Amino acid sequence: MTAGHGGPPPVPIVRRPPDPDDAVIWEPSERWVRGVKEGVTVVDSRRPLLVWEPGRPVPLYAFPTGDVRMDLLRRTVRPASGRHAGSTVFYDLEAGESVVPAAAWTYPGEELGGHVSFEWFGRNALDHWYEEEEEVFVHPRDPHKRVDALPSTRHVRVEIDGTVVADTHSPVLLFETDLPVRYYVPRVDVRLDLLTPVRMHTRCPYKGVAGEYWSWPGGGTRRDIAWSYPDPLPAVGVIKDRVAFYNESVDITVDGERQQRPVTFFSKPTRRGPAPNR
């Protein structure tokens, strides 16, 4: 046999291209999803679609109209055009004593025809969303992202304006797709006496409710410089009561090597909207 002949053809090696930034991307989901408003189940679907709109880093759900209480939706008289990838048909939601303007909409075209989406970001149209029996906050979970919380023995030191505010050899490293690693430090290793409690909380579909925040009284940095999850979701239960800091706003040294401050959505002070998660 002549060398180079008769073997399998070479397999091409290519880099996965990014999603186009001018298209709506969708895929089916097998999760059982429900949405509730004032005790009324508005959505109950075992065949939702996940939808990624241009310029939005997180997905939405679109539901077959047969899985939606369409009798609770009224065509919006003056919809705000351009809010959702060319959609011009919006619906007000009337459930219980509430009326939510432009709470739902349909996408143009045939591929998503017969489906309805609902607002989540910032102005939740519904009070509660559930995937199976677990409540989900902020936005649907992205099946192409993951969050791993791993106990470690790395030496992590956190400084703000040259002052050491945390120093530990037993952090939990939280790896989340498209975000820098977050270092969750035991409270015993954090100088909470140097920080000021802040009355605020945020929610994450992957980690739960961050119910504690702290600021740096020295000023010159963001108000919500550190946070903690008192009761995280089971998948990341190991971060319970630990304290994490914004890598974007503090100086973190890991095993003696100063980490470069990353530039992310969270490089600016607290913002609202369809943000990635901490």
The first-level CATH class of the largest domain is given as Mainly Beta
- Strand proportion: 35-45%
* SS content category: mainly beta
Q: So what's the overall shape?
A: globular
The major pleated sheet works out as: 7 strands, antiparallel
Order of helices and strands: EEEEEEEEEEEEEEEEEEEEEEEE
Output the radius of gyration: 23 Å
> Total strand count, please?
24
Contiguous low-pLDDT stretches (5 residues minimum) are 271-275
The CATH superfamily of the largest domain is Domain of unknown function (DUF427)
Number of domains: 2
Could you please say which CATH topology of the largest domain applies here?
A: Metal Binding Protein, Guanine Nucleotide Exchange Factor, Chain A
Mean pLDDT: 89
Please report the number of helical segments. Answer: 0
What is the helical fraction, as a range of percent? under 10%
Instruction: Please name the CATH architecture of the largest domain.
Output: Beta Complex
Query: What is the spatial order of strands in the main beta sheet?
Result: 1-4-5-9-8-7-6
Terminal residue distance: 59 Å
Report on the structure:
This protein has 278 residues and is mainly β. The protein folds into two domains: 25-136, Domain of unknown function (DUF427) (Metal Binding Protein, Guanine Nucleotide Exchange Factor, Chain A), CATH 2.170.150.40; 147-267, Metal Binding Protein, Guanine Nucleotide Exchange Factor, Chain A (Beta Complex). The chain is 0% helix and 37% strand. The protein has no helices and 24 strands. The protein has strands spanning 25-28, 33-37, 40-45, 49-52, 60-64, 73-75, 89-95, 98-106, 115-118, 128-131, 134-136, 147-151, 156-160, 163-168, 172-176, 182-184, 196-198, 202-204, 208-210, 212-215, 226-228, 243-245, 251-254, 257-258. It has a seven-stranded antiparallel beta sheet with strand order 1-4-5-9-8-7-6, with no helix packed on it. A hairpin with a 3-residue loop joins strand 18 and strand 19 (208-210). It is globular, with a radius of gyration of 23 Å. 32% of the residues are buried.
